[in-house]
Write a structure and sequence with these properties.
single chain, alpha+beta, three-stranded antiparallel β-sheet, about 40% helix
Length: about 80
């Protein structure tokens, strides 16, 4: 299973970091809204788990990590 970590400012100005599994992403409210928006845009034929995950990663500036939020670096780069 892959994990993705995002960070954002909290309501009180704190730095919030969250790590999500792909299973959690596919089940979240954002995913249900994404499906609705894709249907409204007449793009239902483009819907797949992979395309939804790709959109979520871009919108949330996610980086691939392990389940503890440690970034995965491929090929030592």
């Amino acid at each position: 299973m892959k994990y993705w970590t995002i960070s954002f400012p909290g309501e009180e100005g704190q730095h919030v970091v969250e790590t999500w599994s792909e299973k959690q992403i596919l089940a979240c409210a954002w995913a249900r809204n994404w499906i609705y928006m894709m249907i409204q845009a007449d793009k239902a034929h483009l819907m797949s788990d992979d395309s939804m995950l790709d959109d979520w990663k871009v919108v949330h500036w996610a980086v691939e990590t392990n389940q503890f939020g440690v970034q995965i670096i491929e090929n030592g780069i």
